[in-house]
Design brief:
The complex is a heterodimer.
Chain A (H helix, E strand, L loop, with lengths): L2 H25 L2 H31 L10 H19 L6 H20 L18 H31 L3 H4 L4 H33 L8 H21 L6 H24 L8
Chain B lengths: L4 H29 L16 E7 L3 H15 L7 E2 L4 E6 L5 H23 L1 E8 L3 E7 L5 E17 L5 E12 L2 E9 L4 E3 L2 E22 L4 E7 L5 E2 L6 E8 L8 E7 L6 E6 L3 E4 L2 E20 L3 H20 L3 E10 L2 E10 L3 H18 L1
Antiparallel strand pairs in B: 1-19, 2-3, 3-18, 4-5, 4-17, 5-6, 6-7, 7-8, 9-10, 10-11, 10-17, 12-13, 13-14, 14-15, 16-17, 18-19
Helix pairs in contact in B: 1-3, 2-5, 3-4
Classes of the chains: A mainly alpha, B alpha+beta.
Chain lengths: 275, 379
């Protein structure tokens, strides 16, 4: 079966999972929440299969490489990572609303990948700069970091809604303390992964371009993102900041993540022109 | 911008800031990691972060045994309990958690120092070597001039491969390092596979065609239906078969208007104006009675090699490893301490619990609460 076809089905599964999570949250029904979890699980299982099929297919074409090399593949992997991180998170932090948001993010990403005109979904051969063992580890750590930041972004939005709006609909939102902890846990995990992503990127750049750091737009913006989240951690651990201000930094940080991921490639030109 | 004075100033200020803040924290961290206070201090009971007292039935030794094994399973303490002569049990885990913070900040200073060393004593430049020739000078990227290497670099050959889709597959330069004319080392460098010699890194960066010749062009006379393969040199006229006309090449372009290699052909017919036109490789052009196809040519490439030296790199990598160790220590280690004391009282015994943790206080407290309840129900 064609992997892009599976991905288009997965897009809908994530949409329904998001919807089911929302229903289970609104009506507070445990059975619906279980259904949503099953949908999410089958979505990620199918997506994993699609990624493996694409990987195998690239070898059959004689241009074998991990499917992490262009915009289509990276967006697919980004959505996969969000669901993966969400499922890991549910072991300790259960929230149907965050489940709805995670699935919604994954849905938006996949929909963007399949519907956007400029995104090539064909398997492309690896250009010389990408032919490296650093590719897999660099991309995986970066996108796992992005996924953690995406979830902390979702939790931050909920936090602000919870604190700023009043009404019975707001009362059923998760407790601020819970959201605050999710934001902090996701950001501290994402921060370690982002650091790993930057370090592996530097090691790779040293090999491919002869220097570990060259103030390329991608490098500069990843540093800016890193500094924003570093300030988040300092504000919390040293300054004792909590709540609203932390949520704002988290949203600000995620904007920087998106700019590092997409903005740099669309707006600024640099060496990192493949995503 | 990144070499401007204000940027350097900002980096320096950041380093001083990081250094000062870290140093300021060190005494507190040392005190918490290596406490001077006796770990079996009786005063911990009642004055710690978490304090509890549980009444149990049964003898002291019996409760002692149960309490110790239960505590381990509830708060996942892998360490062995220490016990002193006053029957105080002491458990400790993740003691070095706070040292991680020192590692993280120290590693940032290491990386910045590495960067500074690289900026002062390192350099980065490029040399273009034509196939079969040697070069020993690089042009520095920061426009500060050129640098002599002190040895020769010979480019044995350069090759570029393409996929069927037209995307580049591989750039490869075979290099030989010569010291006083004697070959020392030969290596094929490709993107992601540099050569390192005497602390210098040679990376494949770019390429181009240095010179081209022996252009092979198929000329077909459509009137007489004859075909000949011409091998032309630049600006050398060749007469075309079965006619009084001749043909020459006036110019070569390695990548004309990004459509690939092309030659500027000149068709000279008696009594006519010279016809000048671009002939792209593998494309047919009809001109008067003739059609021309530019088939092939001999070429010599030059390979653009980036040469860099950065003595700060080992420090930077040391910093990177240290920062990851620091993160693991400070995020995954939690410094927890638990004291237990079992006292003989009327109708059984009393278990005093004191505990402290550096993180996740709430969940730790819940675990201890469960432990206390379980202990009470068991005896």
């Amino acid at each position: 079966m064609n992997d892009t076809f599976i991905i288009s089905i997965v897009t809908f599964i994530y949409f329904f999972a998001a919807f089911t999570y929302l229903i289970s949250f609104i009506f507070n029904k445990k059975s619906v929440a279980v259904m949503a979890l099953v949908l999410t699980g089958s979505g990620i299982a199918a997506q994993t299969a699609a990624i493996i099929i694409r990987w195998v297919h690239s070898y059959q074409l004689g241009i074998g490489h991990a499917p992490l090399s262009n915009l289509y593949e990276s967006i697919t992997f980004f959505s996969w990572s969000i669901i993966f991180v969400y499922l890991l998170m549910t072991k300790r932090y259960k929230s149907n609303l965050i489940g709805a948001l995670a699935n919604f993010f994954a849905f938006i990403l996949l929909a963007f990948a399949s519907l956007s005109e400029g995104i090539e979904c064909q398997i492309q051969p690896l250009i010389p700069a990408l032919q490296s063992n650093w590719l897999t580890i660099h991309v995986i750590s970066s996108f796992f970091a992005y996924a953690c930041f995406a979830i902390s972004f979702g939790a931050s939005i909920l936090y602000i809604i919870k604190l700023r709006l009043r009404g019975s609909a707001i009362d059923i939102l998760p407790e601020p303390k819970f959201l605050d902890e999710v934001i902090y846990k996701m950001i501290s995990t994402g921060f370690i992964l982002l650091t790993l992503g930057i370090i592996t990127g530097a090691a790779w750049a040293d090999h491919a371009w002869g220097r570990y750091w060259g103030w390329d737009p991608k490098e500069t913006w990843s540093l800016i993102t890193w500094l924003i989240y570093a300030s988040f951690l300092h504000a919390r651990l040293v300054g004792g900041w909590k709540g609203m201000r932390m949520s704002l930094i988290s949203i600000f940080g995620f904007a920087a993540v998106i700019f590092t991921y997409l903005g740099v490639n669309y707006i600024l030109s640099g060496l990192h022109s493949y995503l | 911008m990144y070499h401007s004075w204000w940027f350097t100033l900002l980096l320096t200020l950041l380093s001083i800031n990081v250094f000062a803040c870290t140093v300021k924290q060190i005494p507190r961290i040392i005190k918490l990691t290596f406490p001077r206070k006796n770990k079996f201090d009786e005063n911990v009971f009642g004055s710690s972060q978490i304090n509890k007292t549980v009444q149990c039935k049964g003898g002291v030794s019996d409760v002692e045994e149960k309490a110790v094994s239960l505590l381990k399973s509830f708060v996942s303490l892998s360490t062995q309990a220490e016990k002193n002569d006053k029957d105080i049990f002491f458990f400790e885990k993740g003691r070095y958690s706070r040292i991680g913070m020192i590692f993280i900040h120290f590693s940032i200073l290491l990386i910045l120092t590495g960067g500074l060393i690289g900026a002062i004593w390192g350099f980065n430049g490029q040399m273009n070597i034509i196939e079969g020739e040697v070069a020993n000078v690089i042009t520095l990227f920061d426009r500060s001039g050129v640098k002599k290497l002190g040895f020769d670099v010979h480019c044995d050959s350069f090759k570029v491969d393409f996929y069927k889709t037209g995307q580049p597959k591989e750039y490869r330069t075979d290099l030989t390092i010569l010291e006083k004319g004697k070959p020392i080392i030969s290596k094929a460098i490709r993107v992601n596979h540099p050569l390192i010699y005497k602390g210098l890194k040679f990376c494949q960066a770019t390429y181009g065609i240095a010179n081209a010749g022996n252009f092979r062009i198929i000329a077909r006379n459509n009137k007489s239906n004859t075909e000949t393969v011409l091998t032309l040199k630049m600006m050398k006229k060749v007469s075309l078969p079965n006619s009084g006309s001749s043909f020459a090449i006036a110019k070569f372009s390695a990548n004309n208007r990004v459509f690939g290699p092309a030659v500027l052909g000149v068709l000279i017919e008696p009594g006519e104006k010279h016809d000048i036109f671009w002939l792209f490789k593998d494309n047919e052009q009809l001109k008067s009675d003739f059609s021309f196809i530019f088939k092939d040519f001999d070429r010599r490439y030059y390979s653009g090699i980036q040469v860099s030296r950065d003595p700060g790199v080992p420090l930077v990598w040391a910093g990177c490893i240290l920062i990851l160790i620091g993160f693991i220590m400070s995020f995954f280690l939690i410094h927890t301490r638990v004291w237990l004391r079992i006292l003989d009282v009327k109708d059984g015994c009393e278990v005093k619990i004191a505990a402290s943790t550096s993180k996740n206080r709430k969940s730790f407290e819940e675990k201890l609460e469960k432990f206390a309840m379980k202990l009470q129900s068991l005896s």
